[in-house]
């Protein structure tokens, strides 16, 4: 009988569930209520005079296996607005899943076999590495370094990509460091993938959290063996809408993804797909709100750091919702975070859960509650001893 274990960051959170009241490591932007989303999108839960659409009109039947066509069109329009593809991406190139985790699992099982090599930046979202290792895949890591502002360059990729490489995985803005892959670097990575004819997976779940207006656009989908992944939970903040997606122009890969989805889930929730479609129609308004919250929280934490530079250090994220904070003069980070959560109720996820040794925790900057949580963090930071071993 196979043995399954929780992803490390989830297992750590579950072990402290009875203590957690606040989350300073949240990876999502601010959520809307269902009523707020309906108001924003000019819909409602029930049909009312003067409204063209209504969630209440949704027939609660199976959704299409590949996903609702109107939603898939919104998904490809959303990605084309963020990026600079030379070819037009069509709705038939997209497939929906029940969140990004299911997307990533389906992609890995479609393109990877035991003995294949995968290239990924680390630290990373744990599943990007752990899933591959559980399949017998050789993981070639590109380690990010604080001394280099967590940034990568094309030479980092050239050192590990070779004839055995089956899949290159990139993530920008990066979880958990907040580093980015610029448009120029994205073109270089794309050329490298084309040179070796390997698959290229771009985890774009936080790409729209680009509050500094940086050059983050890519054209990965001009290459047939590229796959782009998105989700409702990160930049849009709608984790309660369990919809993620993959986009690829590779029809053979798309057929494999559809088959895996049909075996595992058959289809997504009809209601979730309807809500996702409404949200993507209003994505500009949602992103404007969420990106302002992130910018405000970066300012708050910058001011906080001027008061506590003797205890902490950080590099503000280039984009996205996350970054890492170093805690100075402690002996063991995971234990320190655990004790901190038990004493304060504030969850801090140590960087070792994401594959990085050192005294770092992941900082989430997407929530409206950030200011109040930060006050509580500060109070307990001052009261706790830094001599925990």
Could you characterize the architecture of this molecule?
The structure is a single chain. The chain is of the alpha/beta class. It is 38% helix and 15% strand. The protein is built from twelve helices and 13 strands. It has helices spanning 8-15, 34-40, 69-82, 100-111, 126-134, 154-158, 183-196, 251-264, 270-281, 283-307, 333-344, 370-383; strands at 22-23, 94-97, 117-122, 138-143, 165-171, 199-203, 226-231, 244-247, 312-314, 322-327, 346-347, 349-350, 360-364. The strands form three sheets. A seven-stranded mixed β-sheet has the order 2-8-7-6-5-3-4, with helices on both faces. Strand 5, helix 7 (183-196) and strand 6 (199-203) form a beta-alpha-beta unit. The radius of gyration is 21 Å and the shape is globular. The two termini are 38 Å apart. The model is unreliable at 46-52 (pLDDT under 50).
């Amino acid at each position: 009988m196979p043995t399954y274990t929780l992803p490390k960051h989830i297992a750590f959170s579950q072990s402290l569930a009875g203590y957690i009241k606040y989350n300073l490591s949240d990876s999502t932007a601010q959520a809307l209520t269902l009523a707020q989303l309906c108001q924003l999108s000019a819909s409602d839960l029930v049909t009312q005079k003067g409204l063209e659409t209504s969630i209440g009109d949704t027939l609660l039947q199976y959704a299409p296996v590949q996903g609702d066509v109107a939603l898939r069109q919104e998904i490809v329009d959303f990605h084309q607005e963020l990026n600079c593809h030379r070819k037009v991406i069509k709705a038939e190139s997209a497939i929906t899943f029940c969140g990004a985790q299911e997307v990533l699992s389906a992609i890995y099982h479609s393109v990877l076999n035991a003995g294949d090599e995968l290239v990924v930046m680390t630290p990373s979202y744990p599943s990007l590495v752990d899933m591959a290792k559980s399949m017998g895949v050789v993981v070639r890591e590109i380690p990010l370094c604080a001394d280099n502002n967590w940034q990568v360059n094309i030479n980092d990729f050239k050192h590990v990509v070779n004839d055995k490489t089956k899949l290159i995985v990139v993530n920008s803005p990066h979880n958990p460091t907040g580093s980015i892959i610029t448009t120029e670097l994205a073109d270089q990575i794309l050329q490298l993938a084309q040179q070796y004819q390997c698959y290229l997976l771009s985890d774009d779940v936080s790409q729209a959290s680009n509050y500094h207006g940086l050059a983050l656009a890519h054209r990965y989908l001009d290459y047939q063996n590229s796959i782009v992944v998105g989700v409702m939970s990160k930049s849009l903040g709608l984790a309660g809408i369990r919809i993620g997606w993959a986009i690829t122009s590779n029809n053979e890969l798309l057929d494999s993804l559809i088959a895996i989805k049909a075996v595992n889930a058959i289809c997504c929730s009809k209601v979730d797909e309807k809500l996702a479609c409404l949200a993507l129609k209003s994505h500009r308004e949602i992103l404007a709100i969420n990106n302002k919250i992130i910018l405000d929280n970066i300012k708050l934490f910058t001011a906080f750091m001027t008061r506590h530079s003797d205890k902490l250090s950080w590099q503000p994220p280039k984009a996205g919702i996350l970054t890492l904070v170093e805690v100075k003069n402690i002996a063991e980070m995971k234990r320190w975070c655990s004790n901190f959560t038990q004493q304060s109720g504030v969850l801090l996820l140590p960087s070792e859960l994401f594959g990085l040794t050192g005294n770092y925790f992941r900082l989430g900057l997407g929530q409206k509650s950030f200011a109040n949580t930060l006050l509580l963090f500060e109070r307990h930071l001052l009261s706790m001893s830094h001599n925990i071993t």
